[in-house]
Specification:
Blueprint lengths: L8 E10 L6 H12 L5 E8 L4 E8 L2 H8 L4 H12 E11 L18
Antiparallel strand pairs: 1-3, 1-4, 2-3
Keywords: Monooxygenase, Oxidoreductase
Organism: Amycolatopsis marina
Pfam families: ABM (PF03992)
Length: 116
């Protein structure tokens, strides 16, 4: 499991409903993943898709300045504009500061204290 730095850090939650068909979406999404990973302040991302239409991507960032710089990136802007024109029926973006973070890992159950 990937670990992130101790909070605080920021998340960008992108929830979208896609239009039918790929129409170049997969290639552009892969390119955005590649260039986002090279941006200062980028910490990683997680994605889930419950159907061909509905998807959620959460990207993790060091600070708000890093998020703003990514939004203005020279390759991000035209791909975002193409998304509005061709790939998305709707999308929402939420930016939040992570104050607390924790995780569970099944393999570690034997080492956790037992309540009682």
């Amino acid at each position: 499991m990937r670990t992130y730095p101790d909070p605080p850090y920021y998340v960008v939650v992108f929830t979208s409903r896609r239009t039918p068909g790929d129409n170049g979406y997969s290639d552009s999404a892969a390119r955005l993943d590649e260039i986002a990973a090279q941006q200062p302040g980028y910490l990683g991302h997680d994605s889930a898709r419950s159907s061909p239409e509905l998807g959620i991507t959460v990207s993790y960032w060091k600070d708000e300045e890093s998020i703003s710089a990514w939004k203005r990136h020279i390759e991000h802007t035209p791909i975002r504009n193409r998304g509005r024109a061709e790939w998305y029926e709707t999308y929402e973006v939420h930016v939040a500061k992570v104050e607390r973070s924790y995780f569970f890992e099944r393999d570690q159950l034997d080492t956790l204290p037992v309540d009682g």
